[in-house]
Amino acid sequence: MPDYSTRDAATGRRLTLPGQTAAWYESTIYARVQGYVATWSADIGDSVQKGQVLATIDTPELDADLVAAKAKLRAGQADVSRHQAEADFAETTYSRWRDSPKGVVSDQEREDKKAQDVGAKANLEAAKAQVAVYQAEVDRLNSFQRFKQVTAPYDGTITERRIDIGDLSTSTTPFFRIAKADPIRVFVEVPQSAAADLMKTGGAVDIIAEGKHFAGKTTRTSGAIDSHARTFRAEIDLPNPDLAIPPGMYVEAAFQLGNRGAVQVPASAMVFRSDGPHVAMVDPQQKVHFGAVTIARDEGSLIEIGSGLQAGDKVVLNISNQVADGDTVRITAIDGKPQP
């Protein structure tokens, strides 16, 4: 009858989970001005630098609005000059009437010149305020002129191009999608059973992507269990200078779990009865004894036992239902060789 010696669960204890990669940054680039696509100079797969021109836009409406705004500004500045002259004349006239000897001019005429002086100055201030409005509009339209060139917001790789020459451009038109994949993030949903071991950051993680191994550490975790999925998110940041790991890729993440004082046995050692899980243990006299155990974690082929077993205990694999407690058995190892 084959047996298996239990071992400490800390020895070579790994938990491998599926994960997914994501870019460090990933953005959709939109146009800020309305017009027509004149040129584009970047396509999917191209590496671009921050500030690099990716496309240019012809903006006939913007250009016409800017010409009109500049014309209004010039007219407003001319109006200010006229009101300045009127204000200077009104001030000089009022000063002469104000300083004239009493009786030479009437008080009514003096007050009338004073009112003309005040009105001329008010008109001058209003004209200056209107020029400030025109100047603000010119500045606003000039600021939009730089958006005729669509540029890269950061160093990265173009992952999508959605425009072509002649396409209508609006503020809601997506032009490109860009991603920065160095470093790259790995997202893993970890079951709550591993929270005690993996909720903290800094633990070693082995990322397996297309058969290649990349060493990393847990950079951050969500710090809370999702009440619906009963998992928490762990994130691993990996250097990716040669872009060997693309965003959106399925990977595996192997975590190293700590020792919780438990032992592991193969799933074939478990015997499930009405009063709970048991294992068949063999004593030094080669007699079988069924003992109740508790399951700490089920990993499929291996079961982590919380209580009822100790490291080094011999358990029977695939025990027949004809074997009763206290029966004497002949032991063979897992490889089928007889044991003394």
Provide structural commentary.
- The chain has helices spanning 60-99, 107-145, 195-198; strands spanning 3-5, 7-8, 14-30, 35-40, 47-48, 53-58, 149-151, 156-161, 168-169, 174-191, 204-209, 212-221, 231-238, 250-256, 263-266, 270-273, 276-282, 288-292, 294-298, 302-307, 314-316.
- The chain has 340 residues and is α+β, with helices and mostly antiparallel strands.
- The strands form five sheets. It has a six-stranded antiparallel beta barrel.
- Helix 1 (60-99) runs antiparallel to helix 2.
- The protein is elongated and about 140 Å long.
- The two termini are 13 Å apart.
Mean pLDDT metric: 85
**Residue fraction in strands:** 35-45%
Largest sheet: 6 strands, antiparallel, barrel
**Which structural class fits the helix and strand makeup?**
alpha+beta
Give the topology string: H per helix, E per strand.
Answer: EEEEEEHHEEEEHEEEEEEEEEEE
Query: What is the number of beta strands?
Result: 21
Radius of gyration: 41 Å
Topology:
Elements: E1 3-5, E2 7-8, E3 14-30, E4 35-40, E5 47-48, E6 53-58, H1 60-99, H2 107-145, E7 149-151, E8 156-161, E9 168-169, E10 174-191, H3 195-198, E11 204-209, E12 212-221, E13 231-238, E14 250-256, E15 263-266, E16 270-273, E17 276-282, E18 288-292, E19 294-298, E20 302-307, E21 314-316
Antiparallel strand pairs: 1-21, 2-15, 3-10, 3-14, 4-6, 4-9, 5-8, 6-7, 8-10, 10-13, 11-12, 11-14, 12-13, 15-20, 16-17, 17-18, 19-20
Short description:
With 340 residues, the protein is α+β, with helices and mostly antiparallel strands.
